[in-house]
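It would be a great kindness if you could assist me with a short task in structural biology. I am sending you one protein, given as its amino acid sequence and as whole-number tokens for its backbone shapes. I would ask you to consider whether the tokens describe a fold that such a sequence might reasonably adopt. The full record is reproduced below for your convenience.
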Amino acid sequence: MVEVRDALDNLVTAASVPVTVSFASGVGTIGGATTVTSVQGLATFSPLTLSGLIGPRSLAFSATGLPAVNTVTFNVSAGPAASLAFRLPPAGGGLNSAFTTQPVLNVLDNGGNLATTAALTVTATIASGGGTLTGATAPATNGVVTFTNLGVTGVGGVRSLLFSVSGLPSLPLSITPCDAARSPLLALSVPSRTLAGFALRSAVVDTIAITDVNGSCTPVASLTTSVTYTGASGWLSATWLTNPARLALRADPSALNTNTYLANVSLTSGNAPTMNLPVTFNVASSISLRYGLATEKVNELDVNGTLQLTPVILSSEGAVITAPITYASRSPSIATVAADGRITARLGGQAWIVAQTAVNGGALDSVFLNVTRTTGPVLRADVARFDYTRLTPFSVTLSLDTRGATVGAAQFVFTWPTEQATPAMLRLTTTVPGTVGGPVIITDNSSGTTRISIASATGMTGVITLGRFDFIPMLTGSSQFVLRHVELLDLNQQSLVGNATALQYPVVIK
């Protein structure tokens, strides 16, 4: 309680004065209301608590415009027990014998001080992992709990322990005790493993936990794996992984037909008995999906035009099968696809259309679509596919379809993924100009850029062949052919570019 007095030392009963308490010396935390308004000249702080390390403190009480008043120095002593903390956790051995380093715990008050007056006993229990404990209780002496014979009886493995005392939060500990008297005895989490995959598809992977059931303190020496087969071989690999110990399996059906395959994995160590894991690999028939013929992989439609291609599903044995197919457009603003596979062009641009089935591991295939304006010239290539084979030559012929317009002069740019740039894919070997409009072709191989110019005083109509370009695919990768109008004039020197379309084509080298 703090009194508010005037200069003549009279109690000021008529005023309400806010009074604040703080530390004048020492540190810690003041609990309760730290600002109290005086009533009848008295500011009553209740309850007021202090927390922090033990030691001397003094408090200051202050109010605006008034000199502060300090308490005499007093000592903060430890409070009642509030929590447990490890001074020294258990370590070494501990399985079927006592830990070589026994646990030591501190009993702390709310300020982190040793609760030296606490009279209590701490009990250790197993929360998970199984087994029993020896030497599981220890009393507190001057705030310190020292175990003398704590150990775990049972098989090897991780244990979750709880150190508890009534009225306080339990202190958890995860530990893997080990047995110094035993050699390692490894065990797999399953006696055998059955895997499932699809013929000619990607590998199937799995992991199996490895434990030392003896819980030996001696580490496993030079564990090696080997695989023996019954019948077809080479499809299984087994690898020992550590932290945590486990066996990684990889079964590869890419060269297998539909069948059941058997193998045995042996794990051999220099100081532990050999383990064996029988593995069964059930390989089912896979499927492939072909969406469109080889000449239908790249398509062209005017806006509002429609197209329907026929997907074919084949089993890994080559038989045609019937299964549900779903369709999706990667660019639905450019082109949509109905549930029956009918494609409708909506807006000028490019779109991928995907057909997919989920049976037998699933499969999908795609076609590419260029959408052109309904009128106006179109700059295109005679590209019907987008995948090419490395080192197998192919040709691309560019043309301008005037679609009723008369062209007096034009200039175009054709870009392609040259081997001298990134991605380095194609080598241009030959260029053959067209015969109409006297095409002038200038190529920069370093950038994969070709400029083409044509002109005619009498005008050009119909489909004008600009030139043929012969390529050799040098490296695998993906890119595109891009066509662009630079200039497109009629006989009156009026530009036709605003109503013209220039197309793009994907390029995938395998």
In short: The chain has a mean pLDDT of 94. The domain at 186-284 is CATH 2.60.40.2310 (Immunoglobulin-like). The first strand starts at residue 2 and ends at 3.
